[in-house]
Amino acid sequence: MASGNTIIIGGGIASATPFTIGQFPVIVLADPATVTDGNIRQDTSTPPKVYIGDASVFAGSTVIGGATLTGSAIAHVAIGSGATVATTSAVNASVVIGRSAINGTGNGNVVIGDRANAAGSGATSSSNVVIGRLANIGVSAGGANNVVIGDSADLSLGSQQVLIGPSAQMSANNLNVAIGYSASVTGGAGIANCVVVGPSSNTNRTQNTLIGYGLANTHSNNICIVGCSWSSTANMPANTCGFLASNGLTTMIVGNNHEAAAPGSLTFRLCNGLGANIAAGSLTLQAGLGTGTGASAVVNLASSIPVGAGSTLQTSRTGFRMSPSVTAGQTDIMVYDVDNATLERVTVGAADSGGVGFKVLRIPN
């Protein structure tokens, strides 16, 4: 007899004729619903079925812990108290794991989580993945290849979509992605190719991209919005990319970090033409528009002024300003006068002051 936690089966610790253990027996039982003990059971079906606990089991399926299969399909896995796969003869290979998790008549779905639900998946709604407590896919027909992950995440329409995040929602057509708490793409049939990333952000228009917290676009198609806490209005034009926030963006920095030993340079240009005799595109830099008698906005072009040797940051200075004027003899242009150390308005001289047919441009002494 060996000591400790050792079990030896045979004719002793050592024997001239060692004992040979044959194959473990296969227990052949009738319908498992009539079995009342709690043994691990495998029957002689082809393919075989394996089950632990009282369950309804079909060929090729594995059922553990009071789960239920209904119908006559094969190759399902159901694990958990109340886990259910409601199958038909044409439906195979679904996996349901979790207390009261449910798969409907969909083919090849994976449902994982406490009360995760794919009961709404029709017979043609296949290859969906539902993961999370109360996560749900309710596409009645044709909804295939969707991924739903998150507590109470809910997808009710479409195919080939990704929905990730607690309480995220998808009720749009196809090829949409929503990621984040309460992120959503809605709007029903026809809404496609949208990407929403960020808590509480939403779009119900097609081909939109929203990145940030609390963004909402319900008006225009084909736009991209990056920011936070912003909602669209009827003035939002299509084919627009915006950096927007409800409290306004005051500074935008592009480059190698906020400060760097090698800041780098930036060229901003439009698309070049391609082919013979292609007209170039125009570039407009436009300040915001006011209303009524509100003051006009200005456009400043600024650069830096050296301050001497050392690591002290240089000083920024506006060298050119577009500032609209309605006064006769003035222009919209202001330039920095180094002698006067200030921006000066450019005015126009009298007729022919720059030669016959021309006016001279000037600034004050």
The string of secondary-structure elements, in order, is EEEEEEEEEEEEEEEEEEEEEEEEEEEEE
The assigned CATH architecture of the largest domain is 2 Solenoid
Broad shape: elongated
How many distinct helices? 0
Descriptive keywords:
single chain, 365 residues, mainly beta, Alkaline Protease, subunit P, domain 1, 14-stranded mixed β-sheet, six-stranded parallel β-sheet, 29 strands, 32% strand, elongated
Topology diagram in text:
Layout: E1 40-42, E2 50-52, E3 62-64, E4 68-70, E5 77-79, E6 84-86, E7 95-97, E8 102-103, E9 110-112, E10 117-118, E11 129-131, E12 136-137, E13 147-149, E14 154-159, E15 162-164, E16 169-174, E17 177-179, E18 184-192, E19 195-197, E20 202-203, E21 209-213, E22 216-217, E23 224-228, E24 241-245, E25 299-305, E26 315-322, E27 330-337, E28 342-348, E29 361-362
Parallel strand pairs: 2-3, 3-5, 4-6, 5-7, 6-8, 7-9, 8-10, 9-11, 11-13, 12-14, 13-15, 14-16, 15-17, 16-18, 17-19, 18-20, 19-21, 20-22, 21-23, 23-24
Antiparallel strand pairs: 1-2, 25-26, 26-27, 27-28, 28-29
Quick structural summary:
The chain is an all-beta fold and 365 residues long.
Overall description:
It is built from no helices and 29 strands. It is elongated, with a radius of gyration of 36 Å. The strands form 4 sheets. A 14-stranded mixed β-sheet has the order 1-2-3-5-7-9-11-13-15-17-19-21-23-24, with no helix packed on it. A 6-stranded parallel β-sheet has the order 12-14-16-18-20-22, with no helix packed on it. It has strands at residues 40-42, 50-52, 62-64, 68-70, 77-79, 84-86, 95-97, 102-103, 110-112, 117-118, 129-131, 136-137, 147-149, 154-159, 162-164, 169-174, 177-179, 184-192, 195-197, 202-203, 209-213, 216-217, 224-228, 241-245, 299-305, 315-322, 330-337, 342-348, 361-362. With 365 residues, it is an all-beta fold. The chain has 3 domains: 23-160, Alkaline Protease, subunit P, domain 1, CATH 2.150.10; 171-250; 318-365, no CATH class.
